[in-house]
Amino acid sequence: MAVRSGLVGAVIGLSLLGVPAVAASPSGPAAEVGDIAVDAARKRVYYSSGAAANQVISVGFDGRGKKVLENQLGASGLVLSADGRTLYVALAAGDAISAIDTETLTERARYALTPHSCPTHLVRSGSDVWFGYGCDAWTGEIGRLDTSVEPAVPTYGHQAPEPGNPEKDQRRFERAPLLAEGGDGAALRVVASQPHISPANVRVYRVDGGKLAEEGRQDRGGSNLTDLAVGADGALFYTAAGSQDHVSAYRADKDMGGAGAWRTGRSPNSVATSPDGTWLAAGVRTAGADGTSVYVHAPDAGRDPRTYRLPPGERLMDRGLAWSQDGRALAIVARKGQESAPVVHVVDPSREHAGDGE
């Protein structure tokens, strides 16, 4: 498996946005980040406060116009609708998925799920919102929220075989699985794994008519897996795991063979592929001698990576990278020292390349 260096290339300052992006709520400041979504049309970054808090925060690419939406119980996974007008939020402490109007940051609807389900991670394919759920040990599953109708209709147990299969109970996740999605048509894939266990068991599903068909399952990506991503064409998936010093790529098929690696330094905790297939972004939890860096690669390795160095004292948060739908804005969410308020930066690697004449 080829290892491509992510420790070379131009070092670029973070200048588009770099201010605290959340204020203290009545119950105290949001201390974690559950998920991130980037809205290119409205030039906004949304992020959730995590399962232990109840906020969705919106801030402009320029750091202005911050808004905080309360009463989002255990706000965790986020995903935008195809038209960008709705932000779906997994309410891990509320057993529901809420639909937020992105123009006003107000709740448009709340879709109740089965009690004690703890929906945590979201991805979207067309009008289907797939959610990883499960509160207790070995109850982790994948559900589907059909948003083509109103009210949206949830169904459950999509990762397991058909009823009556004796392996059903052995195929659950330890808790709510982390999800990633990519591709289109026959190449549309959902990839799932359980965060922070050893070894990481990854499962690849083909999406077909509102159902998931398992393509492969293997131990891949090391241990203490923190983040997953799927390439724009659905052919590859990527893992960021604390036991490694690189982000790994694997084929999204039955064998899930290795397809390359991109060095990041110790304990990568974030990986994100741009929706247009142009860029692969990766970062690490542990700051190096020169601070914490985020590396942005062209997946075909045809260009040197861009290296974005965070300001002194800042560290990239787990799953702290997210792309806009058009692939021109990368949000980087970090924390400075012991401060609880996250810091958000937005960069445009394509503009940096154009400015360098590449």
Describe, in plain words, how this protein is organized in 3D:
There is one protein chain. The chain is mostly beta strands. It has a single domain, classed as 7 Propeller (Methylamine Dehydrogenase, Chain H), CATH 2.130.10.10. It contains 1 helix and 30 strands. The chain has a 5-stranded mixed sheet, with no helix packed on it. A 5-stranded mixed sheet has the order 2-27-26-25-24, covered by helices on one side. It is globular and about 50 Å long. The protein starts with a strand and ends with a helix. The N terminus and C terminus are likely disordered.
List keywords for this structure.
disordered C terminus; 1 helix; five-stranded mixed sheet; Methylamine Dehydrogenase, Chain H; 2% helix; globular; 358 residues; disordered N terminus; mainly beta
Task: Figure out the total of helices.
Answer: 1
Architecture in CATH?
Answer: 7 Propeller
Task: Give the strand order, joined by hyphens, for the main sheet.
Answer: 1-23-22-21-20
Give the CATH class: Mainly Beta
Number of domains: 1
CATH topology: Methylamine Dehydrogenase, Chain H
What's the helical proportion of residues? under 10%
Structural class: mainly beta
Instruction: Indicate the mean pLDDT.
Output: 86
Outline: globular
Cα separation of the termini: 28 Å
Detail the poorly predicted runs: 1-13, 15-29, 354-358
User: Biggest sheet, open or closed, and with what strands and sense?
Assistant: 5 strands, mixed
- Kindly estimate the percentage of residues that lie in beta strands according to DSSP: 35-45%
CATH level 4 superfamily: YVTN repeat-like/Quinoprotein amine dehydrogenase
Beta strand count: 30
Radius of gyration: 19 Å
